[in-house]
Amino acid sequence: MNVTTPLEKLTPKDFATDQEVRWCPGCGDYAILKAVQKTMPELDVPRENIVFVSGIGCSSRFPYYMATYGFHTIHGRAPAFATGVKLANPDLSVWIVTGDGDGLSIGGNHLLHILRRNVDVQILLFNNEIYGLTKGQYSPTSRLGTRSPSTPTGSIDNPLSPTEFALGAGARFVARGIDTQQKYLPDLFKRAHAHAGASFVEIFQNCIVYNDGVFTEFTDKAAAEDHQIHVEHGKPLRFGKDGAKGLRVKPGSFDLEIVTPSENGVTDADILLHDETSHTLANLLAAMQPPHFPMAIGVLYCNPIESYTARISQQIEEAKAKAPLGDLNALLQSGHTWRVSD
Amino acid sequence: MSETASAKAAPARAPRQELETAVVRFAGDSGDGMQLTGGQFTLTTALAANDLATFPDFPAEIRAPAGTTYGVSAFQINFGGRRIKTAGDAPDVLVAMNPAALKVNLKDIKEGGLVILDTGSFTERNLQKAGYEKDPIEDGTLDGYRAVKIDISKLTLEAVKAQELSKKDALRCKNLWTLGLIYWMYGRKRAATKAWLEKKFAKRPELAQANIAAMDAGHAFGETAEMPAEIGGFTIQEADIQPGLYRTVTGSEALAWGLVAGTELAGLKMTFASYPITPASGLLHTLARLKSFGVVTFQAEDEIAAVCAAIGASYAGTLGVTSSSGPGLALKMEAIGLGISVELPLVIVNSQRAGPSTGLPTKTEQSDLFQAVWGRNADSPLAVIASRSPSDCFDAAIEAVRIATKYMTPVILLTDGYIANASEPWRIPDANNFTPMPVTFRTDPEGFKPFLRDPKTLARPWAVPGTPGLEHRIGGIEKDHESGHISYDPANHQKMTATRAAKIQGIANDIPAQTVELGPSKGRLAIVGWGSTYGPIDRAVANLLEEGLEVSHIHLRHIWPLPANLKSLLEGFDQVLVAEMNNGQLSTLLRSQYLLPIEGLNKVSGQPFKIAEIEAAIHARLEK
After folding, report:
1. E-only strand ranges, B485-563
2. CB distance A225 to A245 below 8 Å
3. Which ipTM was obtained for this model?
4. Count of CB contacts below 8 A, A vs B?
5. Which of A262, A225, A230 is nearest to A240 (CA)?
6. B231 contacts A330 by C-beta, under 8 angstroms
7. The model's pTM
8. The CATH number of the domain where A96 resides is what?
9. How many domains does chain A contain in total?
10. What is the pLDDT of residues A149-181, one digit of tens each?
């Protein structure tokens, strides 16, 4: 176990490095960095026990700007490195920073497996629906018809929803946030950290150079009220000005519909309460897309089970209980042996 | 070989003949249990104080269609009363459980050798499946061999009648009947196999009894002179073996234990991350059972994830180890480049197999030397070592751990399919005599810079997450030579490239000087080998030294960097011949490094060198 010295209360500044931040001016990554640095002092984890692991891409420069341990690895493989870190030392708080290209294109396989295994890490996927660092090609989350240097006449492959992917992969904690929402992001990160197991957070992040304004439909201040729904466990799924609108299951179907209580005989009691332990509801919320539906923000799903990390530790403890540790001679002499004498 | 009658021999038959060594090959369908039969014969032979070496040779298909030639599985063992260094060239005895086994193996058998056939399996259908137009028992195919035709199928069914098994289950005891006969032939005791069967079938005692009955019946068949009168048994003297405690060991086992020993000596825990691939999976299987040694094993989703997890584990302060075979190593290379760039310890085991691409997964080759030494983007040096035999994997693994941790570098340990699966007796070392090689993690924040090096080894400090005051960032982008911060400075990159190379080259001063295994240390001809060619080269050179030829054997453990004195050693020979199971990789490497006229003796048939092939090459060069 690590020796930890009780530290005086740290501030966000204590998590900033002396390295010049090299994202484009106005990039959404700055806001996320700020929210993460704001979150860290509130986690009650000694700074030396925090590790940021990333792959390749704009978002993956993140570890250089955090005054914790950091490992900037290779394209798409951050989940595999992070798994190794947790196998070696389960006590570390491990944060993966990835993007839609790194995490879902070249690294889709590893993201799938770290989620299904439920390794105890936090995964922050910055989704800007574009390749930034390679100068603007379309990504697996780019919308159909996206014009980019590699798709001058528009992309023809169907986009992937990161949140739906995570739910499908068996993630036990799935949340969504928006880069500029400093009010909400730290709470999401704290919830992700508190969840023992793989925690997945998709963050809509604006790329000011190659995909500017791609989320304005629901992130614009004027549009936010009617096009975002902030879900909270146990509370009614309401949105719009003064929470005038709500979601309910459309009678006679398995779909959600938007209703307004007091209109057409709909009452407050008809509005669904958010149940973050319901996989079915999480899938319905994740699938909602503007302009017909609001974008669901917040903890869509949290339903913990024992983590991979805990299960590994348990198997090792059981093995040690059966065979006391470390007698190399006993190992080498196990099974059939014979002695040749002089 | 003197003919001395054994007291045990039945009076009416040929006396037991005394042999110095013998080579037996068991061959049958992949469902016939030939590997088990060979394994039991190996154990019993070791218990009889013979030295031995084995060569399991099995198809890639798990259950190839019964009776086909590509479904034939074989197990060869060379054993005797002297040091045994290879699994033997041409077998003296072939046991062929079906026509396909005869078809595939007969060409390898020594002229006049004994061929034991289960005639019960020589049905028209099986002959057809093996591609025989006529019955080889009748058509003269076996002329030149001593064929022993026994209806083993029928005799086995009779022997296990009491257990009332289904015909299918009863016939599965055929291999034990045959093993019993071979036990009789070489005067072996059956007790160890009996005990093994009782344990293996503890939950199905009727199967244990049936197999034991079959083995006893095969033994009695020989004992009671039902064998042709001219075929007697053999006696093999005990080998002059160094006193000590012994066991048999496969390369996979020795490697696993060596890694455990190495990490313990380094004061570390091991995180082993791997993805199943033939012939490397045995290592994962062995280590998965060693959790009580603090070994964490992780079956990753692919080869890339396996090496990345191993690097992540090294970053966090355990020794990351990964393993694979050639195609898997190719997938790992980008990550290994990161390991070189961030300078973390990592051991990569490569059980080589025949290629390119999928190649021949179960056949052996040494064709990944280039991939190991040079197979990455950019100037990315690491250390490469090779093990020479199953038991040598133990020492090679400890050496790999030593270099990886002392020099903060990835190390590739090359073995091959032959070494991984073959077994040999091993004098068990006493762990109390091993030299500790403790690793020191950096803990002092005073003056800490992630890439400030030890001036002697050029290794950077190992500062693991969880250590207060040492929080730092590393990555695959070029780093400043001290602070480790991102640096695009041209002079810094020049310096870092040179430093990475110098660090690895420096290992040459920290490994034993290259010695000559056999023969004079300068002279007319040196045969240079590496890896599993050790056995056949050493035996061939020993044989020809006895004949008075001037030839030497040099065997490399360290492939990169090469031993510091190797060039001058090679310069002492008129001719240098590199014998290797590839198209000329070590020979090319040595020529490029030393500008010496080095020749290659190359074999890529998926089979190990025969002693005779190396002897012929030596003769050809010394008679020029």
Report:
1. 523-530, 551-556, 558-560
2. no
3. 0.96
4. 213
5. A225
6. no
7. 0.91
8. 3.40.50.970
9. 2
10. 999 999 999 999 999 999 999 999 999 999 999
